[in-house]
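User: I'm writing a tutorial on reading structure tokens. Could you give me a worked example: one chain, its sequence, then its tokens, then a sentence or two explaining what the tokens reveal?
Assistant: Sure. Here is the example chain.
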Amino acid sequence: KETSSVSIKTSVTFGGQPELAPLPIPTLDETMEKFLKSIEALQADDDPMARAQSKRIVVDFFRNEGPALQKLLLEYDRRGREAGEIGSYVEEFWNDSYLAPDSSVVLNLNPFFVLED
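And here are its predicted structure tokens:
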């Protein structure tokens, strides 16, 4: 029995991975809607101007950079799957951010945001 490298096909843990449906990439519309909904919890209820400003920023992103970045994400996912390099568009990020570091992920790594007062 070879122990130096285990193929994904023979791995007990990941043996069924190739049969799983790919993680869907949400549309830009879905992402923008979910983003606006999620930041509501971080904004003061009594500041409608802040919410309106957030919505303007999101709409501006949606009309400008958003479509090009969405296209790049879809292309990255397609190429990675075709080449067999990734199984999901989040895989490389997940591996680099959560599996590769030697330190405690919970205490030392939160790549998404920092709340400042």
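What the tokens reveal: Confidence is low (pLDDT under 50) at residues 1-6. Residues 1 and 10 are 11 Å apart (CA to CA).
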